Amino acid sequence: MRISGVTIPDKKRLEYGLTAVYGIGISKSQTLLDKINVDRGKRPSDLSSDEENNIRKLIEEEKIEGELRREVSGNIKRLKDIKSYRGSRHAKRLPARGQRSKTNARTLKGAKKTMGSGRKKLDKT
């Protein structure tokens, strides 16, 4: 089963498989499945073509994949353009929502780089 260019895994339950689409999390997938009365535990391979089309139609009404990615990157670009604090944090690849960055923020900052004293040790021979 493919939805807007993304293949939904056949081995997973439908409620978890739909989260492979960017912009659909677990709660949104559950809401969508409840709206069209499809069992959450069904596998994509067990769906009838009618149910598959209903799911596809509902999901394509949402803002997902490329459209959503464009919107998010546009929002970040706008923050950078107006030179806001949040925009500058995005530009420096640091946490933008007030988290401490002295000791944490490893996801954004990358692996630790230990700084030395800048002085070579004397070799006593």
Architecture overview:
The chain has a two-stranded antiparallel sheet. The protein is built from 6 helices and 2 strands. Helices cover 44% and strands 3% of the residues. The mean pLDDT is 88. With 125 residues, the protein is mainly α. Helix 4 (65-81) crosses helix 5 (85-91).
Q: What key phrases describe this protein's structure?
A:
single chain; 125 residues; mainly alpha; Helicase, Ruva Protein, domain 3; two-stranded antiparallel ribbon; 6 helices; 3% strand
CATH architecture assignment of the largest domain: Orthogonal Bundle
The CATH topology label of the largest domain is Helicase, Ruva Protein, domain 3
Number of domains: 2
Derived structural class: mainly alpha
N→C terminal distance = 72 Å
For the biggest sheet, the summary is: 2 strands, antiparallel
Strand order of the largest sheet: 1-2
Topology:
Layout: E1 2-3, E2 6-7, H1 14-17, H2 26-35, H3 49-61, H4 65-81, H5 85-91, H6 106-109
Antiparallel strand pairs: 1-2
